[in-house]
Amino acid sequence: EGLTQITLSDPNFSVEDFLGGAGKAFEMIVLAYAEHDTDTLKPLLSDEVYSNFAAAVQDREDRDEQMETELVVIKPAKLEEVSVDDRTATIAVRFETEQVNIIKDAEGQVVDGDPEHIESVTDIWTFERNLANADPNWLLVATRSVD
After folding, report:
1. What is the pLDDT of residues 30-57, one digit of tens each?
2. pTM
3. How far apart are CA 27 and CA 105, in angstroms?
4. What ranges in the chain are assigned the alpha helix state H?
5. Any bridge partners for residue 85, and if so which?
6. Rounded to an integer, what distance in angstroms lies between the CA atom of residue 11 and that of residue 95?
7. Residues 145, 100, 33, 76: is their CA dihedral positive or negative?
8. CB within 8 A of 32, min separation 6: which ones?
9. In terms of C-beta distances under 8 Å and separation of at least 24 residues, what long-range contacts does 113-122 make, across chains too?
């Protein structure tokens, strides 16, 4: 039902294109977050999510730590849930990845994570867009990990 409402409001919308764009956004956001690149993050995230990400980046900078993330495998994104409330479309997307995540201190020593360990990570990211707005871009409004 949600997909029908989105398509009626935006005839150019396609699930395939949306999931492709969401996958690119996922990769861009994960890598920008690891690289402390808040300028890249700002236009892609809701104010609340940006605030949380920027605070975590600032905490790492305050400890003089660097994060390194390698996305080894990104499986095709999958729709988890779609809804439209008033004119706001919300789409939750499941991302299953294989990642290497480490944090290094100022001397380059690993203080968290294992550079030799590939971790399976499943995240649900929720994107929103006001369908009344001509802007076709979606904002990341929530993230959660699935254990």
Report:
1. 999 999 999 999 999 999 999 999 999 9
2. 0.92
3. 24
4. 2-9, 15-34, 38-41, 47-62
5. 88
6. 26
7. negative
8. 38, 40, 41
9. 115/68, 118/72, 120/96, 121/95, 121/96, 121/97, 121/145, 122/94, 122/95, 122/96, 122/97, 122/146
Coil, strand or helix at 134: coil
List the structure tokens of 94: 């499941």
Span 46-74, average pLDDT: 96
Distance CA 89, CA 107 (A): 46
Contacts of 34 (CB under 8 A, 6+ apart): 67, 68, 69, 101
What does the pLDDT read at residue 54?
97
- Grade residue 18 by pLDDT with cuts at 50, 70 and 90: very high
Summarised one tens digit per residue, pLDDT across range 79-99 is 999 999 999 999 999 999 999
| Cα–Cα dist 124/131, whole Å | 22
Query: How many C-beta neighbours within 10 Å does residue 74 have?
Result: 16
Q: Which residue's entry shows tokens 């009344």?
A: 132
